[in-house]
Specification:
It is a single chain. The protein has 138 residues and is of the alpha+beta class. 28% of the residues lie in helices and 36% in strands. It has three helices and seven strands. Strands 2-1-7-6 form a four-stranded mixed beta sheet, with no helix packed on it. Strand 4 and strand 5 form a beta hairpin.
Amino acid sequence: MKKNILLMGLCTGMILTGCASQSDTDSSVKEVSLDIVVKDEVNDKELFNETLTKEGDIENLYDFLSECDELEVVFEDGSYGATIDSMLGLKQDFNKGPWWLYSSENNETCKEEGMCPAVQNLEINDGDQFVFSYTNEF
């Protein structure tokens, strides 16, 4: 009888542990929608203007853009972290331009700092709006 009670307790503990670890894993997966506008200011063209929704372990702008195959984003690692090197086939020239810049009027961090930080440091929220500009001017 003691063996049966011990066995039932052990099985119950394993089931509860399995359920707890499953919910911990699921909590990092979330769905995020961002309004994305991509402008080529060099040639005065709007290249993209859509709301994109991605699901995954998305905490920052880098995570989100890494999931956006439709934007063809290529990152370059530098001393300040990852930067956008290319988007939609337009590659920046870091030394003389044009460059990829981005801004947001409703992202809390961008508003608080008066500018958007590096993509890996920029926490995002569902509904944030971003404008990516390929430009010769700062």
